[in-house]
Amino acid sequence: MIPKIDIKDRARDRIADEISRHCRQVGFFAVTGHGLEQGLINELFAVSRDFFGSEQKEKDAVSLSEFHRGYARVGAEKIDPYGPEDFRETYLMGWESPDEEPLPQRIPFLGPNNWPAGNEYFQQVLLSYYHSVMQVAQFLLECFALTIGQAADFFKNNFKAPLSNLVLAHYPVLENAPRQAMLGCGEHTDYGLITLLLHDGNPGLQVKTRQGQWLSADASADDLIVNVGDMMEFISGGKYISNPHRVEVMRHTPRTSIPFFVQPDYEALIKPVLVPFDEAENTGRWKPRLAGAYLEERIAQSFISDEQKLILALKSVAGPEKRVIKNIAELLKCLSLSQ
Asked: Which stretches make up the Fe2OG dioxygenase domain (predicted)?
């Protein structure tokens, strides 16, 4: 059972103390008193069930766009680049400009959402929840800022056109899957600052301990599960843990979860604030980076082709075989590019 924090009507500094303690140890906690309307949550799960229950051709009509928004079939993603395909289907949406004016320049991941045609209710519910959960996320970011010795508004200016996205994830039942060969979602860490997860109460989410054991991340369906992402771990100088986690394949009951990935503007500079300046500048691990460029790299790895994965695996070989392996990798690369 992951730790729980009640944020209703409590001072930010008190909440920050609890966040700091839990994020040093496991990187996950459940939030109660979040203020999200239960009616809206019920509607969100209802439209999610309806969408995933529709005909495949209707879902495929809104397949992932160039802005990485829309629908992805079962097996389209390998969030663990060297693991099996994820046995789940997803629908992704993201931030839209409130005034509907086009962005001054093309920015990866920022563009129109790929909405199902003729389903305005689906669109209204997702947008309403997106803006509601963003308010909860902003409050939690204020608390996180306090934990790293910054002003509460430390993250605020990096959310003008955020890359935060909302994902509907459906895990179908696969009764006869080989126990070790298939996962609903492979082992991974989240890319952004923090993630706020709704789920339908069905188990499946597991968190990896420092000893390499997998433990169930059980929480009430009424709570939000919050976890630290890679960007927050980086900003904290490794103080907080972006913990590996996964979702088991569903063998009896389907599962729906709805993560909200809190990610700043593309041009936000991500750099550690808890590492001494000279170490941050001179150690490759702590080299500042753009949030958007980092996301592009990580997402590309999740949707990488089998040929590219083999090339990367071959290139990682060390020892006397390295020269031969490198030549094989280059040959495979040429074959891949020629297709």
From this structure: 161-264
